[in-house]
Design a protein that fits this description.
By secondary structure, this protein is of the alpha/beta class. Helix content is about 45%, strand content about 15%. It has 16 helices and eleven strands. α14 links the parallel β10 and β11.
Length: about 350
């Protein structure tokens, strides 16, 4: 299959990497020969992940080698965002400056390879109007098509009112926001500890953390305030499609909440999840998960994602060619839905 739109890939900038290596507290990185040890969560400084230097080399590549890899696997365009932790967790002024610098690096790549890279801005979530202005700069001047924010920043979540100027700007500009998971907050991570990255990271902690974040956005009324605002989730929705019916309980079964403590919303939680969110299959190439997400949100909201370079195109593209869906749905997932969301022109995917 050619013409695929990959809705989740990541990059490093040299400047951002140097900053991580210069730090003594998380987020930081240690170099051990051909290995990299990465500590990403300030509230859980003992938790780390080790990965080979080749992953870092691929993250730093926004040039011909990346484009050649895309060509070899039929990838027409990649959504590219700064890898975890983004610039989210640093002090305000450090984060604002680092975000602008990283966005400029990606913006140069977007300009150098027209149509191949779909830039997503990194932002300081609690920067208020300054961060909203940075998103507008990235969209109107650098040609970006969205933003990427991680699932919490310290003990603050994105339902914090200081984040809402970004939501207003994203709705006004007509671009989506991707929520990328990270480790659970330190006050929540205790049950995950003792098993390293295995339990607290992609195995379980990432999905739990992102799901909590999404529910907080819904229950805070973000989508009642900004009804056209669109978000994206990877990994088949961090298990939220599985929980939709349960999340609706207080709204469809009055005896569940007799004291009326549930947030008063204009729609049921499941309606926000199917009308304000888009999903991709990155790093979850598993038929039961993909089919559950497909049935829960519909074929018009599911997209392809690889999570490059943490996952391989051999597996990701092999999966999209063989997953058990109809051919019309395969085309939607491969490219048509992404083209609609990102307002892309040009030919669609074809088998």
């Amino acid at each position: 299959m050619d013409g695929i739109i990959d809705c989740e890939t990541h990059y490093f900038s040299e400047g951002f990497l140097e900053m991580l290596r210069s730090r003594t507290t998380p987020p930081r990185q240690e170099v051990h020969g051909d290995l990299r040890r990465y500590f990403c969560e300030p509230s859980s400084p003992e938790v780390s992940v080790v990965y080979p230097s080749i992953v870092e080399e691929k993250l730093l590549d926004l040039g011909d080698s990346r484009v050649a890899l895309m060509d070899a696997h039929g990838i027409a365009a990649q959504v590219v965002s700064l890898t975890s932790p983004g610039t989210d967790v640093f002090e305000r002024e450090v984060s604002l400056k680092a975000a602008a610098a990283a966005n400029d690096v990606l913006g140069a790549a977007v300009a150098r390879y027209p149509g191949r890279f779909i830039g997503f801005a990194t932002l300081y979530p609690f920067g208020g109007d300054e961060s909203a202005s940075e998103l507008e700069r990235c969209v109107t001047e650098l040609g970006f098509r969205g933003a990427n924010i991680h699932s919490h920043v310290g003990d603050r979540y994105l339902d914090d009112r200081r984040c809402w100027p970004i939501f207003e700007a994203a709705q006004r500009l007509g671009v989506p926001i991707n929520i990328h998971p990270t480790l659970p907050l330190g006050s929540m991570v205790a049950p995950y500890l003792g098993y390293g990255w295995t339990l607290s990271g992609p195995g379980l902690g990432f999905g739990h953390e992102a799901a909590v974040q999404v529910c907080r956005l819904i229950f805070a009324g973000v989508f009642d305030a900004y009804p056209d605002l669109q978000f994206m989730l990877g990994h088949c929705g961090e298990a939220l499609p599985f929980w939709m019916y349960r999340l609706d309980f207080p709204y469809i079964k009055p005896w569940i909440d007799l004291t009326g403590e549930h947030p008063k919303l204009e729609r049921k939680p499941s309606e926000y999840l199917t009308q304000n969110f888009w999903y991709n299959i990155s790093g979850n190439f598993f038929n039961p998960a993909v089919l559950a997400c497909l049935h829960a949100v519909g074929s018009d909201r599911l997209m392809f994602g690889s999570d490059h370079p943490y996952e391989t195109y051999e597996e990701a593209c092999g999966y999209i060619n063989t997953m058990p869906v109809s051919e019309p749905d395969r085309l939607k997932i491969a490219s048509l839905n992404a083209r609609r969301l990102f307002k892309l022109d040009g030919p669609s995917a074809s088998c």
